[in-house]
Design goal:
By secondary structure, the chain is α+β, with helices and mostly antiparallel strands. The protein has three domains: 81 residues, Rossmann fold (3-Layer(aba) Sandwich); 140 residues, D-amino Acid Aminotransferase, Chain A, domain 1 (2-Layer Sandwich); 60 residues, ATP-grasp fold, A domain (Dna Ligase, domain 1, 2-Layer Sandwich). Helix content is 32%, strand content 20%. The strands form three sheets. Strands 8, 9, 10, 11 and 12 form a five-stranded antiparallel sheet that branches. A four-stranded antiparallel sheet has the order 4-7-5-6. It has a three-stranded parallel sheet with strand order 2-1-3, covered by helices on one side. Helix 1 crosses helix 9 and helix 8 packs across helix 9. The chain starts with a strand and ends in a 5-residue tail after the last helix.
């Protein structure tokens, strides 16, 4: 692979984050001196901007066509290898309802959930709950509902993120800790705990706040955390395989005070911004930022 297209931008609500990720990846790959790196900013849901002669595509698109199997299917049709899971796994992982069904069928623990229609007057599950669009990412349109008077605003925010149509996902809020496990080509990376101010890891805490902390679980002084880390890696790989992933994926968890782990979702095109977690974990494993990008690129293939 010599000529590498880094796909970024796109038409989803995560366009700005994607541009940040894509520019970082393109710069990192170019710094290695062994690739001709072509940044490709997409403004439509097609590959019209893709130059000829590309040997592989690094997908730095987030959400929408870039993560729901669309760009993957288009690259398959051109027989161009690309990073991340294939079209089928991407379709499942991008849909949080389908993801939960597949996880449940495969015995992978996930938080209790239900669906709410646009006219719902109250939560279908006992409070507290998390309300989210089934097919969006980067915490867009996600709210925690702890009191009944917060329901209407949370439902409206989730609906607005998905164009005002369809049902929204309502998920049991798991009290406890938030963790994430990055996976590259079937290997689990060091586990990261997410410690956000106030205990809520929303859009601002994810991309803007300098107060959110990301300690590695293996730095914990609690001896139980070593066992927890191994358990999370195993469950993450179980989820990765259940969905049919390959290449890079991030698996997000909530962990109860008793140590029970629940998979929240799988992100098949994780971010590569200054706050992103897969590159942090890759660097912890001994790679450089550019080395993480290169390892992901080396896993590129098409269906």
């Amino acid at each position: 692979m010599k000529k590498i297209a880094v796909l970024m931008g796109g038409t989803s609500s995560e366009r700005a984050v994607s541009l940040d990720s894509g520019r970082n990846v393109a710069e990192a790959l170019a710094s290695l001196g062994k690739y001709e790196v072509v940044p490709v900013e997409l403004a439509e849901d097609d590959l019209g901007a893709l130059p000829d002669g590309v040997d592989a595509a690094y997908i730095a698109l987030h959400g929408g066509w870039g993560e729901n199997g669309g760009v993957q299917a288009a690259l398959n049709a051109r027989k161009i290898p690309y990073t991340g899971p294939g079209a089928d796994a991407s379709r499942i992982a991008m849909d949080k309802v389908k993801t939960k069904l597949v996880l449940e069928m495969n015995g992978v623990p996930t938080a209790a959930w239900s669906l709410a229609s646009p006219g719902a007057k109250s939560s279908p599950l006992p409070l507290p709950v998390v309300v989210k669009p089934p097919c969006d990412g980067s915490s867009v349109g996600i709210s925690k509902v702890s009191a009944a008077d917060q329901w209407d605003a949370a439902l409206s925010a989730a609906l607005a993120a998905q164009g005002g149509k369809g049902e929204v996902l309502v998920e049991e809020y798991i009290h406890g800790r938030e963790m994430t496990v990055g996976i590259i080509d079937g290997e689990a990376l060091p586990v990261i705990e997410i410690v956000a101010k106030g205990g809520w890891y929303g859009y601002e805490e994810k991309y803007s706040s300098e107060e959110t902390r990301y300690p590695f679980l293996d730095d914990s002084a609690d001896p139980k955390d070593a066992e927890l880390g191994e358990k999370l890696k195993k469950i993450a790989l179980d989820a990765y395989r259940a969905i049919g992933c390959r290449g890079v994926t991030r698996v997000d968890f909530r962990v109860s005070p008793l140590g029970r782990a629940y998979v929240l979702e799988l992100n098949t095109s994780p971010g590569f911004t200054a706050h992103s977690l897969v590159p942090k974990a890759g660097i912890r494993s001994g790679l450089t930022f550019a080395g993480v990008c290169d390892r992901i690129l080396q896993s590129a293939r098409h269906d």
